[in-house]
Amino acid sequence: MFKTLIDAATLAQHVNDPAWVVIDCRHDLMNPAFGRDAYAAGHIPGALFAGIDDDLSGAKYGPDGVFRGRHPLPDRATLVATLRRFGIGDATQVVAYDAHGGMFAARLWWLLRWLGHEAVAVLDGGLPAWQAAGQALATDTPARAAGTLSDRPALTRTVTVDDVMANLTSATNVVIDARANDRFRGENETIDPVGGHIPGAKNRFFKDNLQADGTFKPAEQLWQAFTPLFTTPATAIMQCGSGVTACHNLLAMEVAGLPGAALYPGSWSEWCADPARPVATGT
């Protein structure tokens, strides 16, 4: 069972294995059509496509009409149905990949763990690593029989915006922001309407988890980078712009042997939507 990362050579041995499902998670925050277009142009043989905006996210507004962020968690039953459509069952080994160092694939990794599915890994280095290994691409969309994935107890933790607000006073947990340093400081914000960060948060840019070739840094290096940020992983709340790249930090922590941190799914996009919530800028 692969539960964090898998390399291209190992995946190549299993692309025709009916017990494995490979999911293409490529995406572009500024061009929603990019992922599906890239998939159609060429993907790992046998892979299916999952869209961040639709398959792997829920409604931006709750039943009360309140904005929940740019990529809220999907309804659990809806997500189970989506993943069953991809042919995923309780015994399926799932491999998620993108072309961005796991930036988007980590979201599917986290969501499957949220549903209690342990056998899910991210392709280390993504599609570039696959092609660098001399592996071919395909353009067909495979047909798969529906899977039987169950909704089981979560292997992950989440917190709400109210939890994060309460933490401003209690300071029980440390919030760790996965966005780029300039966005964290409130500079060059081009995605959300307000620049800055949650007061008291620390910054750990998710791309700092990667080596120059787009693969993850060794576990020891990741351990050394993350452990100064918190007392224990259980006291850490991971966030980003919309709950996607925070999953990359959570994956890096798992690789480092530091499980137990929580995800704040709404992240900065939800937080900054209410002017009553405080905003910090600078470092």
Describe the structure.
The protein is α/β, with parallel strands linked by helices and 283 residues long. It is 28% helix and 11% strand. It has a five-stranded parallel sheet with strand order 1-5-4-2-3. It has a five-stranded parallel sheet with strand order 6-10-9-7-8, with helices on one face. Helix 7 links the parallel strand 7 and strand 8. Helix 4 packs across helix 9. It is globular. The mean pLDDT is 97.
Number of strands: 10
Give the low-confidence spans.
Answer: none
Q: What is the share of helical residues?
A: 25-40%
- In what range is the share of β-strand residues? 5-15%
First-last Cα distance? 41 Å
Structural class: alpha/beta
How do the helices and strands follow one another from N- to C-terminus? EHEHEHEHEHEHEHEHEHEH
Categorize the overall geometry.
globular
Q: What is the average of the pLDDT values?
A: 97
Domain Rhodanese: 16-139, 174-280
Protein name: Sulfurtransferase
InterPro entries: Rhodanese-like_dom, Rhodanese-like_dom_sf, Thiosulphate_STrfase_CS, TST/MPST-like
Organism: Pseudoduganella chitinolytica
